[in-house]
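ugh ok fine here u go
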Amino acid sequence: MSPLTNTVAYRVQVRVKGQRAQSETFPNRKEAEQWATSIEAAIRERRHFPHAAARRTSFDALAKDYSETLLAEFGSKEKSTRIRQLGWWSKQFSGLSLAEITADRISQARDKLGAEKFTRGKPQKDRNTGQIVPPKEYKRSGATVNRYVATLSHLLSFAVKERRLLDRNPVSDISRKREPRGRTRFLSDGERGSLLDACAKSDWAALHALVLLAITTGARKGELIGLKWVDIDLKKGRALVRETKNDEQRTLPLAGRALEALRELKLKNSARSEYVFPQPSGLPGPYEHFDAHWYAALEAATIRDFHFHDLRHTTASMLAAQGASLLENCRRAGPQNVGDG
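structure:
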């Protein structure tokens, strides 16, 4: 009973672990109970007092939650990439709560990522000297750094929108690294011949067939490496790509030297692996990390400033040079057979 108005009022206090969280007064019992129920539900669902929840939740716990929920919706390749990137961020923020993941901490970690150097492949034995040569070191590009930051941003957006652990995403307060304009590098006729000769002499015998396929089909590295023999029809000269960048299956035409190289690989497939390009070690799965052999072939062919992805540009250049009739033939075999640019 209010002594001033001489009316009945209902005062509600919601406590969390013995501490008063919030109180409110209502004119009737029904409204008081509805308000208390909504606040208690918000607390249970972590929608109330996000700062306190952020202090109680570690970065690693959020990353685990994100990996088990949202990442399950991605394809295997994208999922693998994001898990690797999250692993790097987890090392930077190990032991920190979400409340401690501030824009300045993210900015410092981003700059550290850009300055880090990494290697491709394993140490190789020099054929002339017999000495073990360590793999070359590379620096991450601005585009790669931005992809890492994008994954972190998606994780923290999950914390904001799905788990109500943060008021806003701190990544929105930092800038992205500058990315260079798209490059167009393709092999000349002489470079193409030199590269294929070097691939034929590679320690990894399948490299020659892989590069031939890349040049003649315009397919991406991941699409080719993931091919299985069940997807290859050597009689009809075609290959089915099940996992593409756009999540749409497509058919690649197989002809000429590329088709012959695949037939030879089939005969040499003594391990009877399901993959066209299996790991030389005999471990399950395709041989995804063949970079050392690729760069060794480039070195042997004295080709500079060239990436595996540039083989797609070489395909487009060859088709353009040989006229519209060849383009039309490729289109009849499949609307995306030479890639989508």
